[in-house]
Design brief:
Strand order of the largest sheet: 2-1-3-4-5
Number of strands: 5
Helix content: 55-70%
CATH architecture of the largest domain: 3-Layer(aba) Sandwich
Strand content: 5-15%
CATH topology of the largest domain: Rossmann fold
Distance between the termini: 20 Å
Number of domains: 2
């Protein structure tokens, strides 16, 4: 089972280490920690993390928004802003980069997890607009094949639906959805929705 590796771009070392601790506790991997926009750009030229957390105000001449612009043009991975700045001018600059999320410090682990999951779901949805994912493609990459019903739930899940929304759309109970999800996670060798969605993304890019 591979973890989702996330790049942390934060110019305060203690804050960066704290964020890394939160990510690891939540089951994510830390691809790297960089403390300036310039270092982030250098890292992104030769590496491809699967997501990024970007502070906006960084040491050096490049800020987090400029890093986001580079990601959009080159790496095309989901990213979330972590910042203490929530003024209108900053938000307007942020909006132009189409982030997966925006968290104002201080934040807790639940906020961080929710924001990352939503960023991922939105990214997967955009990635798959022009890409058809098939049951055969998924089953070639996992050790135990999904059923057609489980694949149907997986497709609905990638659109960002909650368990309640999944149950409503498929006309089953929430407990039935939870049971199916546990089977899906087991067969895909992942621990949660986030890792399942990242596996879908990998499969689409490997085709």
């Amino acid at each position: 089972m591979s973890k989702v590796n996330i790049l942390i771009v934060e110019d305060e070392p203690l804050v960066a280490e704290d964020i890394a601790g939160h990510l690891e506790f939540l089951g994510f991997g830390v691809a790297s920690i960089v403390h300036s926009g310039e270092d982030a750009l250098e890292y992104l030229k030769t590496n491809k993390p699967e997501a990024a957390l970007l502070d906006i105000t960084l040491s050096g001449t490049k800020d987090g928004i400029e890093v986001a612009e580079y990601i959009n043009q080159n790496n095309k991975i989901p990213f979330v802003y972590l910042t203490s700045h929530a003024d209108r001018s900053t938000i307007e600059r942020v909006k132009s980069t189409h982030p997966g999320g925006y968290l104002v410090k201080p934040f807790d682990e639940n906020d961080l997890l929710t924001c990352i999951e939503l960023a991922l779901a939105n990214h997967i949805q955009q990635t798959t607009i022009k890409s058809e994912l098939t049951l055969a493609q998924v089953n070639k990459k996992i050790s135990s094949a999904l059923s057609e019903r489980e694949f149907e739930i997986l497709l609905e899940m990638k659109s960002g639906k909650t368990n309640v929304a999944l149950a409503d759309s498929l006309f089953v109970s929430v407990n039935t959805i939870k049971s199916h999800l546990q089977n899906i996670y087991s067969k895909m060798d992942v621990r949660n929705r986030t890792e399942a969605l990242f596996m879908i993304d990998r499969i689409l890019h490997e085709r």
